[in-house]
Amino acid sequence: MNNLLDVSASTPRSTPRFQWLRSLPRAIANSLERARTRRLLSQLDGRQLSDLGISDADRASELDKPFWR
C-alpha cells in the first residue's frame, strides 16, 4: 500500500495570455452600467442633485468621462 501514487486531480489554470478573455464579459458589463448611471445622472435636476450632495461641477466632470472609465 505504500507504493500508491498521488493521482489527485489538479485544477487547470488558464494561461496569462487568455486571462483577458475571461475578464472581458465583466468589463463589458461594468462599462454598460457606468453608461447607464451617467445617463440617469444627466437627467437629474438641480434639486435632486442637491439632495444627493452632488454639485453641478461634479456632475459635469462625471458626464465628461468616457464610458470605459
Outline the structure in words.
The protein has 69 residues and is mainly alpha-helical. It has a domain of 45 residues. The N and C termini lie far apart (59 Å).
Query: How far apart lie the N and C ends?
Result: 59 Å
- Structural class call reads mainly alpha
Fraction of residues in H or I helices: 55-70%
- Which residue ranges are poorly predicted, with pLDDT under 50 across at least 5 consecutive positions? none
The helix/strand order is: HHH
Number of helices in the DSSP assignment: 3
Shape verdict = rod-shaped
Strand content: under 5%
Major beta-sheet overview: none
Please report the total strand number as a whole number: 0
Radius of gyration: 24 Å
Instruction: Give the rounded overall mean pLDDT.
Output: 86
Write a brief caption for the model:
The protein is built from 3 helices and no strands.
SSE topology sketch:
Layout: H1 19-42, H2 46-52, H3 56-63
Record keyword descriptors for this entry.
69 residues
